Structures are given as structure tokens and as C-alpha cells.
Amino acid sequence: MSETERMSDIDEPRLFEENGIEAHVAALVTPLLKPLGFRLVRVKLLGLNGLTLQIMAERVDGSMTIEDCETVSRTVSPLLDVQNVIERKYHLEISSPGIDRPLVRKSDFFHWQGHIAKIETKITIDGRRKFRGTLANITQDGFTLNTDKAAYGEALYVPIPFNDIIDAHLVLTDELIRDALKKNKDLSQQFIPEDNLNVSKKARNYKN
């Protein structure tokens, strides 16, 4: 069994979590997702169409169909109504991670090793907190980022511990699109080159 397969588990914890209302929503919906075979990627409040509560989820293999999004929406919506966590009108959006996805678990880094990512850390590393580069040398403790846009005097290879990350996501490239389509046949069937390349699947529900 490969390192990626061993770590890809529905109970694998996320590396960082939300705060405030987003954390409250995450705590409410996570127990509902697991029995359905889904796991939470992130919760985010967005200033779209007034206010949008985005719940991003996926199956352990990284897939998430439109039907899956609708299933999650029907499951979590009643609880959010009862708990009234947002005391104003909002849109509930259930979304797949998309191609340029957030990296929230160690298995995400193993799975997408060799691709370009943007990383933000909670402490200064090599004089910076924001990095862009290729993911390499993934271990249980962290990884090396081979920076592709290092300024004069900055290190080209930056070791980053998982414990120091506060945000991470893939950068959309032709190589990433090809790899994502190869790994996800369902996404490949729905992908249209002329469309927005940030392909994700969503189910939306307007909440009073």
C-alpha cells in the first residue's frame, strides 16, 4: 500500500480549521458527512449574492459529483435551519474542491506532489510567510517547496512543517489540469476547455 493510499482515510484530520461561525458550521456538518461517505474540506463565508455559506466536501478518493453535492445539501440544510447559525438570509452552496483545490490534509500533499501550490504559514520562514512553488519531498512532518519565483537572496528550496501552515492550495496549470482529468474520470467527462478552468461542482440553496 502506498503512502498516499495509507493516509487517505475518511477519519484523517485536517491540518487547520476554521474560526467563529465557520468553525461552528464545520462542527455541525462533519458528523453528518461521514455516514454518507464524505469528508469536509472547508467551510467559508463569502460575500457573494449577499452572503454565501460555502461547504466544500469530497469523497475519500477526491471525487464529488453534482448528485453528491445535492445529497449533502439535503442532509445538512435542515440542521443549519434548526441551529440558525447565521441570523440573516444567505445562500447555502455545497461544492467540490475543484481542480485548484485547497490542500487541507497530509494525504492531499502526497496526492498532488510535483504540482505547484501557494502556501501561507503562521510563522516567518526564510523571512517570508507566503510561498509559491512545487511540492516535493513529502513526509509525515512536512515537505519541501521548490520555489519558482524566489527573489534575489531568497532560498530556492524551503522546508515547511505541516504544523506551521495556515493556508494551502494548488495553482492552476496545464500539467495540473491534465493530471486531474486523468485521475478523475467523472471530472473529465464534464470538462469543457472553453469553460472556466476552475472546474467544481455545486449545489445551491437559498436560505431565509
Enter the CATH topology name of the largest domain. GMP Synthetase, Chain A, domain 3
Mean pLDDT metric: 85
Major sheet size, sense and barrel closure: 5 strands, antiparallel
Strand fraction band?
25-35%
Question: What class do helices, strands and sheet pairing give?
Answer: alpha+beta
Keywords: Cytoplasm, Ribosome biogenesis
InterPro entries: Ribosome_maturation_RimP (IPR003728), RimP_C (IPR028998), RimP_C_sf (IPR036847), RimP_N (IPR028989), RimP_N_sf (IPR035956)
Domain Ribosome maturation factor RimP N-terminal: 28-100
Protein name: Ribosome maturation factor RimP
Structure description:
InterPro entries: Ribosome_maturation_RimP, RimP_C, RimP_C_sf, RimP_N, RimP_N_sf. One of its GO terms (cellular component) is cytosol. The protein is of the alpha+beta class and 208 residues long. It has two domains: 3-95, RimP-like superfamily, N-terminal (GMP Synthetase, Chain A, domain 3); 106-173 and 180-185, Ribosome maturation factor RimP, C-terminal domain (SH3 type barrels), CATH 2.30.30.180. The protein is built from six helices and nine strands; from the N terminus they run ααββαβαβββββααβ. The chain has helices at residues 3-7, 20-33, 66-83, 106-111, 174-183, 185-190; strands spanning 38-46, 52-59, 90-95, 116-125, 128-136, 142-147, 157-161, 165-170, 202-207. Strands 7-6-5-4-8 form a five-stranded antiparallel sheet, with no helix packed on it. The relative contact order is 0.17.
